[in-house]
Amino acid sequence: MATLVGHGNVRLLAVGMENRKPTKGELEEMRELVASAMKDGAYGMSTGLIYPPCVYADTSELTELCKVVAEQGGVFVVHMRNEGNRLMESIDEMFQVARGSGVPLHISHFKANGRPNWGKAPLAVAKVEEARRDGLDVTVDQYPYVAGSTFLGSLIPSLAHEGGIERLLERLRDRDTRARILHQLLEEGDEGDRLRWEGIMITNVATSKNKPFEGRRLAEAADLRGQEPAEALLDIVLEEENAATMVSFTMHEDDVRTIMRAPFQMVCTDGIVLGRPHPRAYGSFPRVVGRYVREGVLRLEEAVRKMTSAPAQRFGLLDRGILRPGFAADITVFDPDRVIDTATYEDPIKFPEGIEYVIVGGEVTVENGKHTGERNGRIFRHGQLNQPS
Q: Which CATH class is domain 5-144+251-268?
């Protein structure tokens, strides 16, 4: 486990959930918190610019914090502000932060989101390629699916989240405020028709009332509740106290393949293992080899590089990612003709096939396709070798 310092936590400590710029003193406190975390072994800073309170940060705030990250040799990992209608502008904003701070930039789960934006992946890839030619240190990662996953409440406009979860729930209970949120929600949508809501699958809820909706599309759940989908969304978020999760079908397969071929792309899971999770949590890496390599999208050697040495080098894992004397024995033994993911959206908690052995730090943790019970992972700290003493 190698960790990043969370920009959201830093902002919560200094500013709280308020939608405003930090004062000079608050910004300095944030810089000190980031510096402290980096010295404690963080590999960089991460942010999610669609999630409160990160969404309230402007470009100048991010640039100032990233100067600290750059000074400590870390990486800035970002879920961009918009991956849909304003995808290109969001990429430009991240380039501005990287250029202004000197930080290496890594864009998480790179994609073109929403039907109106299908086909933008070649343009987005070209934009990154141009920046790299101009000397900007930027890479991306991607999960090999046309659906993403996050908290259901992220569909609600960010202003409604200001002040934290309790304030959000209060707003959803207040009739007039709720009406304004509903209006904004419908106005902001990339797709205003039922197709938008049919692309959202509810994956994890806690209340018995909503348990029957796990694995169902939001449009179907709304019908069963006797509501319009947007109204059902607000009520489920309220009833689940903003802890419900979803899978959202928003991407096109051609865009997924275009991004996958980019030499600066790496493979990720971006997985949340809660309730009925996104199948990427169990299937991302074997899916790349089992589907995309066999279909000719990537060569096997390139796919393995994108899963091993490329991320290890990107994040400075000094003795990982390559089979070499003196490096850690982290090895996955698989059958390239048989390996495949088996997890689906309907049945996501399923292990892949075709992986015979996994060795972590020299200890066998999977043998003949079965977990041995051995746990040999360790905590990594930035700038340190991670071999046992």
A: alpha beta
